[in-house]
Structures are given as C-alpha cells and as structure tokens.
C-alpha cells in the first residue's frame, strides 16, 4: 500500500517516522518544505502539492492544525479534490470540527473515495512511542481495514460511530484535559502560596490515586522549567472553542475556555501547562 501524509508538525513527523521504521513507503507534503528534510533522509518522498500526494498514494493521512488548514489542503489550488480520487482513502487525524469532516466525507464519497475522521488522544511522547489512542468516525469497515496501520501509530484504535463522531469524542476528551490542566495549575499555585515545596506536592500526586501519565509529564516539565510545547496552549484554546460550538462545554468547561483564551495571548506557543503562568499573572494583577 502506498501511503501519503500531509502535515509534519510536532505530531505528524514522529508518526511518519514510525511508518518508515516498518518499511512503508510514505509520500509527504508540508507547507513548510524544510520540515520534510528529516523524514526524507529516513526514506520518505517529498512532493510540492497535496495533488501530488493523492496521485502517488492509496491512503492519505492528514494531520494539520485546524479547519482552515484542512479546507486549504482539500479545496485549495492543487488540493486533494483536484485529483482523481476513485478508490482513495483519506484519514483525517487532525483535531477539527466534526462538521468539516462530515462535509468532506460527502464530497469525496461522490468522487468514489472515503474519508475517515481519526483524531488521536496523546501527545508527542505517545506519538514517538506508538502509544496513541485513535478515535474513528465514518465507514466502520474501512476503519477496521486500516487497523494494521493504526497499530503502528497507536496502542488502541476505537471505532466511535458515524462521520464526525471521532472528532466529537476528541473534543470532549480535550475539554476534560483543559479542566484537569487548569485544576492542576491552581493546585500548584496554592502549594507555592503556602510555602510548600513543589517537589513534595508532586511526589504526593505521583504516589496517590490521582497519579497519571499526564500529570507526571507536566510536573516534570515544571520542575525543569521546560515549557516547550508537547501540546501548544493555543491549540487547546482552539479545541475549546470548537467544543463550545458543538455544545459540549458546561460550567467548568466554559471557565476553562475563558482562561485558556486569555492565556493564549501571551503563552499560546508554549505548552498547555503554561496556563499556570497566566493564572499567576491574573492573581498578581
């Protein structure tokens, strides 16, 4: 099977590397061509347009940042929809609105192709280790046929339901993630305000019923002063906005949306745990 991949950001690049490690041939496109160099050195082929990807591939993965990027990839000049699509399978792994997947699924279906929404739960470390959880929406038979590829990229693939369902569940999960992140940041600020050593708080969390991979990773980032984005704060703010549009948010979710939108102004390119900085700024003002 010839695989195409569009989007070589912090998540896309390690996922392509895993496919290459399993001796799959991958044709890649990224808007910033220079980002293709590393995977080309590992055996991928880079092309100049999405149209070239579809002409060389049987299944095409898309992993980009937002609805606008997805729309441009499909409908822009030399976009995917300008090619011969009969028999092609598109797997949109981007966290975007359920609506854009539903509309694109209808369009490609009319051209004899299939689109699956397959956003992932997990961050860069999970992408590197093949430990993502993949959430599927669309044609269940096609989703099941993709399992061998999903098994390279993740530890689990779950079929959720009709087109857009994978993205709906992903937005629910990311809304919960935002609430947890904000709560963790508030607890950290409270710990500092009481003069308790941060290491003692983190040791307690990591050895209690609250212990989990996410809090451990974010605690490690804080103690090392590392705010490099494993999951950029601006992207979580974007996801919360999408969740709002889908009537997913309730009281705590709406508060998280307000705080992450505010934080994105100054800390958008940093990791989501930079919400702690923003909350601290608010307390100081």
TrEMBL record:
User: Would you say which domain of life the source belongs to?
Assistant: Bacteria
Keyword list (alphabetical) reads:
NAD, Oxidoreductase
What protein does this entry describe?
3-hydroxyisobutyrate dehydrogenase
Ranges for domain 3-hydroxyisobutyrate dehydrogenase-like NAD-binding: 164-275
Q: Which GO terms describe its molecular function?
A: NAD binding; NADP binding; oxidoreductase activity
The residue ranges of the 6-phosphogluconate dehydrogenase NADP-binding domain are: 2-161
Xref: PANTHER family: CYTOKINE-LIKE NUCLEAR FACTOR N-PAC (PTHR43580:SF2), OXIDOREDUCTASE GLYR1-RELATED (PTHR43580)
Q: Does the keyword rRNA processing apply?
A: no
Q: Which residues form the active site?
A: 170
């Amino acid at each position: 099977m010839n695989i195409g991949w569009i989007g070589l950001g912090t998540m896309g690049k390690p996922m392509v590397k895993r496919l290459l490690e399993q001796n799959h041939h991958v044709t890649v496109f990224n808007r910033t061509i220079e980002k293709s160099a590393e995977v080309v050195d590992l055996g991928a082929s880079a092309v100049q347009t999405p149209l070239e990807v579809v002409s060389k591939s049987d299944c095409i993965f898309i992993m980009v940042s937002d609805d606008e990027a997805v729309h441009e990839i499909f409908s822009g000049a030399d976009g995917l929809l300008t090619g011969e699509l009969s028999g092609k399978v598109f797997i949109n792994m981007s966290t975007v609105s359920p609506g854009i997947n539903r509309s694109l699924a209808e369009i490609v279906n009319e051209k004899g192709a299939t689109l699956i929404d397959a956003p992932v739960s997990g961050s860069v470390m999970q992408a590197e280790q093949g430990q993502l959880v993949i959430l599927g929406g669309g044609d269940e038979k096609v989703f099941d046929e993709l399992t061998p590829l999903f098994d390279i990229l993740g530890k689990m693939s779950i079929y959720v339901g009709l087109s857009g369902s994978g993205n709906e569940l992903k937005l629910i999960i990311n809304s919960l993630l935002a609430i947890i992140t904000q709560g963790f940041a508030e607890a950290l600020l409270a710990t500092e305000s009481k003069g308790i050593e941060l290491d003692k708080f983190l040791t307690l969390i990591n050895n209690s019923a609250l212990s989990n991979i996410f809090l451990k990773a974010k605690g490690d980032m804080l103690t090392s002063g590392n705010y490099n984005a494993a999951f950029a704060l601006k992207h979580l703010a974007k996801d919360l906005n999408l969740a709002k549009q889908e009537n997913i948010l309730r009281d705590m979710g709406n508060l998280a949306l307000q705080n992450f939108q505010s934080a994105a102004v100054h800390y958008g390119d940093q990791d989501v745990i930079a919400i702690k900085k923003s909350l601290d700024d608010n307390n100081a003002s």
